[in-house]
Amino acid sequence: xxxxxxxxxxxxxxxxxxxxxxxxxxxxxxxxxxxxxxxxxxxxxxxxxxxxxxxxxxxxxxxxxxxxxxxxxxxxxxxxxxxxxxxxxxxxxxxxxxxxxxxxxxxxxxxxxxxxxxxxxxxxxxxxxxxxxxxxxxxxxxxxxxxxxxxxxxxxxxxxxxxxxxxxxxxxxxxxxxxxxxxxxxxxxxxxxxxxxxxxxxxxxxxxxxxxxxxxxxxxxxxxxxxxxxxxxxxxxxxxxxxxxxxxxxxxxxxxxxxxxxxxxxxxxxxxxxxxxxxxxxxx
Amino acid sequence: xxxxxxxxxxxxxxxxxxxxxxxxxxxxxxxxxxxxxxxxxxxxxxxxxxxxxxxxxxxxxxxxxxxxxxxxxxxxxxxxxxxxxxxxxxxxxxxxxxxxxxxxxxxxxxxxxxxxxxxxxxxxxxxxxxxxxxxxxxxxxxxxxxxxxxxxxxxxxxxxxxxxxxxxxxxxxxxxxxxxxxxxxxxxxxxxxxxxxxxxxxxxxxxxxxxxxxxxxxxxxxxxxxxxxxxxxxxxxxxxxxxxxxxxxxxxxxxxxxxxxxxxxxxxxxxxxxxxxxxxxxxxxxxxxxxxxxxxxxxxxxxxxxxxxxxxxxxxxxxxxxxxxxxxxxxxxxxxxxxxxxxxxxxxxxxxxxxxxxxxxxxxxxxxxxxxxxxxxxxxxxxxxxxxxxxxxx
Lengths: 284, 394
Prior knowledge:
Shape of chain A: globular
Number of strands of chain B: 16
Largest sheet of chain B: 6 strands, mixed
Shape of chain B: globular
Number of helices of chain B: 18
Radius of gyration of chain A: 21 Å
CATH topology of the largest domain in chain B: Rossmann fold
Radius of gyration of chain B: 26 Å
Order of helices and strands of chain A: HHHHHHHHHHHH
CATH superfamily of the largest domain in chain B: P-loop containing nucleotide triphosphate hydrolases
Distance between the termini of chain A: 59 Å
Helix content of chain A: over 70%
CATH class of the largest domain in chain B: Alpha Beta
Mean pLDDT of chain A: 91
CATH architecture of chain A: Orthogonal Bundle
Low-confidence stretches of chain B: none
Strand content of chain B: 15-25%
Oligomer: heterodimer
Structural class of chain B: alpha/beta
Strand order of the largest sheet of chain B: 6-7-8-3-9-10
Number of helices of chain A: 12
Helix content of chain B: 40-55%
Number of domains of chain A: 1
Structural class of chain A: mainly alpha
Number of domains of chain B: 2
CATH superfamily of chain A: MetI-like
CATH class of chain A: Mainly Alpha
Number of strands of chain A: 0
Mean pLDDT of chain B: 88
């Protein structure tokens, strides 16, 4: 047995830190809370107010333009099924949280990834943190989210955003590092400033990889938003939660499948978007 | 100092190390430690060690060496893509190692351009946008830079490919884009890092020729890196041979061919096809006898007699070649009371100083008369006898 007198109560200190944040920066968190909520409500309002068939047509057109006519038809068909399950509203609510979280993930993740890609020390510090973030069970994020933002949709967005952040940071970093050395040298040899090098050469070159990161981040967000229903994020996850509590197989099947359909549609579309930005690798 | 011999680039005691403990490594090098010792003790790799040379305005300076000899490290020091560990680099008399980052960017924008082995083209930009890049960074207006880019693409024969992407072009065409991109900023100095090594032999030859053509028009100062000694000797006005980060010898191709400084270089030049390196001007000599077109037949015969030759070139007052007279014709003409002018024939071959000996071989095979080497305005510079053409082959 490990000696009982040797103790290190890390959890206690983390708890104290989060509580300290909460008491001393409550205004900050309130401000974040209300702005996130404002954005979320507006996105959801748009998704719910727009007639269902308009969204179906939009999904069809996007699928058609990005992939193929068949894909467009399948995507629209899947979404139609979701509506027929009677889960249109929870699906739109889930989608709204996903979109909001992904938006914030990208806003934070891409700049952090750029910093990581251009600074080795920062990258060395951040890498283990990202590793930890990705291995930590997703439920754990719910606790600080609830402390800082109470129950509801905003902590849902917060937890989802944190959980979905690592892929976009990692892939932005990777994309920047994979830019061919000669290309960077060429840009430098013409006297580019660091900013010109980043904006005109490195970021466009890294774009396919960054788009792959957007895809992964979106999928992570979708997975997390289901779990976040436990702290009141609502949406499809809530339907699943209710089905578990009532052991309702019918409802569980329908809501579970709806999540899968949403995942398929979002994944294929963001992937197709990522593919658009691929340039052929130069030979040699 | 005249304009021709002005030093454009001057590198003094340049050393470039890679790794940590560079200070310690520098001291070890100063004490004469070898590359291996330095690496073992300090973990430092020596890229370039105590290299000095100067390149004149308008000169093509070739750095030749095998992989790992430090030649690419060296060329990257000239535009500070590699920061020298010690030593000085002067461009137009200014020590560029002392520039701050803004001054360095300015110098790169205006004075230097680089061409890369694998072209280094921006794959997300069109050919046109690639060529525009240097101008865009400089802050040139869109209209102006499009115009300049278009002209430069025209100059390298890529008209009509403006909107293509690099991946759609062949290797040779991609490197033309690289060249156009470098020339577009109108730099004084062109740094070329093995620009033709990734190309097929035939295309490489075309590109070499094209570079020489462009150079004869633009007279840039060029530093050219290659591992191919034939290419070095074909392109270079002067060649520096590098080995293990050190310059073993600097000289004109002829000097290196004739007196290699070390066994290493001797081994190298053994494979060189001398006929591809030597030009007409290298094997021509001043004719021992020449006469003016106003001279009499008897003078001509006497000149040929005293010099023991069977034919003589006849020049006018401006040293322009009028023709050749053979001893047989002269003697016959003396009996027939003809003048020198009447027996002159044009039955000889002429060439220019820059023609490679290789191209003279077929001519030398078919004629018995010497070849006349003429300047552009038709003056006689020297003659080449067939023996010297054919002996250049061995």
